[in-house]
Structure formats: C-alpha cells, structure tokens
Write a structure and sequence with these properties.
Radius of gyration: 21 Å
Oligomer: single chain
Number of strands: 0
Low-confidence stretches: none
Mean pLDDT: 94
Structural class: mainly alpha
Helix content: over 70%
Shape: globular
Largest sheet: none
Length: 259
C-alpha cells in the first residue's frame, strides 16, 4: 500500500520484514526492491541481485539500478534479452514485456511493439500483456489494431486497471478527449492512488484550459474543479487548476460588477 501511495520510506521496513519471513517469495522481494528503487538506494538494490531469479519485475528493477550506476553492459538487460528467446514460453513472454518497458525510450516504437506482440502471442491468456500491447499500438498510431485488442479484452470481461489505461491510450491516439477522461476515471476507480489521480488530473486540467480558451466557461470550470479536487496543493496540476479557477472567478465578478 505504501509503495502504491508513493511512500517508499514507509514501505521499506514492512517489505523487508515480509521478505525476511519468506525469503523465497519473489513478490515480497519485488516490493522491497521497488521501495529501494524509488528511494534511489541503487547500491543496496544491486546487493539484492543474488536473490533475484528469472526475468520478472525484480530483474527490471535491477536493470534500472545498473543503468543509474553506469554499469555497462547491464547484466540484467542482457539477461532479459537472452530470456526473451528461450524455449520456456512463460519466461520468454515475461522477459519480452519487461525488456520492452526498459527500452521504451531507447529504441524504435516498432521494435517495442514487436516485443510485446511476442509476449501476447506466447501467453495469450495474460491480460497484462494484451493491455501493454494495446497501449504500444496506440502510441505507434496503429489504432485499429489497438482497438482489436481492447475489444477482445472487453469480450473476455477483463476490464480492470490496466484495461482502462489501455483504453485511455487509444482515446488519446484518436484525439478523443471526452473518452480519454472517461477511461481515466474508470482507471482511477479501479486503483485510487497518486499515479491514477495524476493521470486524470493533468488530462482534466489541459481539457479545462483548452475549453477556457474556446470560451466554454461552464465546461472549463467543471473540469478544472474536478482536477483541483483530485490532488493536494503539492500536485502541480491541482495548483494550476486552482489558479485558472481563480481567474474565471475574477472574470465573472468583474463582469457582474460592470452591470
């Protein structure tokens, strides 16, 4: 819970305690390593490398730490690359997805799509892979193929957090702001945490700002108010939304005074 709420310092002790009780539990190790990553304690994180098995999220966190510490070539990135072509479909699919996420800003989008496509082909029943594939296809402008993946998941009844994030990515690629906001609201309802609030908050802020520029005061006020209500004063989108709401209020007051 602390990790999800972006409080890694609070997550560190209970995650380490859980892992100490069950040292073979990869999920407990992942939560501990995740807290270390978010605290930028990369030296300590690297020290956990001997306990990491396979190519899952722990290997991904190790690769991030190796990158931050300028360890080149990265042993964990090399591991994922090798595992992505192994005979074990499950291990290969997992490695493909984490490799795609790791290299997201470093290689061409077509290559990223190919990696995630491989994962979805090897493990077609894993909805997470299909969600990532739908997102990457949308980002690559392949909206029809992205829509096919989302349609398949909807028919399967798999409409959780990752599904709504993918649906929001497709709506963004199709420049459908109203549908994107709707999907991001669904994503936030599925998982209320700073990340989902931030994704929705920024989209609402930009939409409210654009509506204000177009003279749609009522729509602008509604979206800016919703954005401001999602985060505390430390969130930039909430602060910006509040500022625009104050401008609208001042404008309306000055207009009414003139009459």
């Amino acid at each position: 819970m602390c990790n999800r709420m972006e409080k890694p310092a609070d997550a560190l002790e209970p995650a380490l305690a859980a892992w100490s009780i069950e040292p073979d539990n990869e999920w407990y190790l992942a939560e501990y390593i995740r807290a270390l990553k978010n605290l930028e304690m990369y030296d300590v994180l690297i020290g956990c490398g001997d306990y990491v098995r396979g190519g899952g999220v722990c290997r991904y966190y190790l690769a991030i730490a190796e990158r931050e510490l300028d360890i080149c070539p990265s042993p964990s990135a090399s591991y994922l690359l090798t595992a992505s072509g192994c005979d074990d479909d499950s291990a290969a699919a997992d490695a493909c997805v984490w490799l795609a996420i790791l290299l997201g800003n470093e290689v061409e989008t077509d290559s990223i799509v190919a990696l995630v496509e491989t994962a979805a082909r090897l493990q077609p029943d894993v909805i997470f892979y299909r969600c990532i594939l739908a997102e990457k296809l949308a980002e690559n402008g392949e909206t029809e193929r992205s829509r096919e993946q989302i349609h398949f998941m909807r028919l399967e009844g798999s409409m959780g957090y990752s599904y709504w994030q993918a649906a929001a990515s497709l709506a963004e690629a199709e420049e459908d702001t109203d549908r994107r906001i709707w999907a991001l609201r669904k994503a936030r309802n599925s998982r209320i945490c700073p990340e989902t609030s931030r994704n929705l908050g920024w989209t609402l802020y930009f939409s409210g700002r654009d509506a204000l520029r177009e003279g749609e005061i009522l729509l602008s006020r509604e979206r800016l108010w919703e954005a401001a209500s999602l985060g505390d004063s430390g969130e930039i989108y909430a602060h910006k939304a509040d500022s625009l709401l104050e401008l609208i209020h001042e404008f309306e007051n000055s207009t009414s005074d003139s009459y």
